[in-house]
Design goal:
Layout lengths: L15 E3 L5 E6 L1 H4 L5 E7 L8 E3 L4 E7 L1 E6 L5 E6 L3 E4 L5 E5 L6 E7 L8 E3 L7
Antiparallel strand pairs: 1-2, 2-3, 3-10, 4-11, 5-8, 5-10, 6-7, 6-9
Length: 134
C-alpha cells in the first residue's frame, strides 16, 4: 500500500470529547483527524470552578496557550507547587510531571489551546494519585 500524498488540511473541532483528565476537549490536529505523525493540538475547556484529575503525560511534552480565564496548575509529586496562567500566557509541562489544572473562576469557563509532540496523546495520559500524608 502506498502512502497518500501529503496535503494541507483544515479541521473544525465541532465535537466535544471527555478526556482521561475529566475535561472536555475539542479535537483538532491528531493522528486520527489529519494523519499527523508527531503532533496533536486541541481546544480544552475547563468549566467554571472545575479541575482536571491529577495525571501525567507519558513520554511527551505539552504546551498550553490560555485563550480565556485564569488557571492554577498544581504540579509535583504531592502537587505541592503551583503556577497561575492567565489569558495570553503559555505554559510548558514536561513529560512525566504530575499535575492538575483548576479553573479559578466560579462563573466563566477557561479555554486553552493544547499542543503535544505526540499524535495520539490521550493514549499516553495516566491518572496520578498523590501520596497521602499520614
Amino acid at each position: 500500500m502506498e502512502n497518500p500524498q501529503p496535503k494541507v488540511q483544515a479541521v473544525r473541532p465541532d465535537n466535544e470529547v471527555m478526556t482521561r483528565q475529566r475535561l472536555p476537549y475539542f479535537v483538532g490536529i491528531s493522528g486520527n483527524t489529519v494523519n499527523a505523525s508527531g503532533l496533536s493540538m486541541h481546544l480544552v475547556v475547563i468549566p467554571p470552578g472545575a479541575r482536571a484529575e491529577p495525571h501525567i503525560h507519558v513520554g511527551y511534552e505539552t504546551g498550553i496557550y490560555v485563550l480565556e480565564g485564569t488557571v492554577r496548575t498544581r504540579w509535583g509529586a504531592s502537587l505541592e507547587n503551583e503556577v497561575i496562567s492567565e489569558a495570553g500566557e503559555f505554559l510548558f509541562v514536561p513529560p512525566g510531571v504530575p499535575h492538575e489544572a483548576v479553573n479559578l473562576s466560579k462563573d466563566k469557563p477557561a479555554r486553552a489551546v493544547v499542543a503535544r509532540n505526540h499524535p495520539a496523546e490521550q493514549d499516553l495520559v495516566e491518572p496520578y494519585v498523590p501520596p497521602t500524608n499520614g
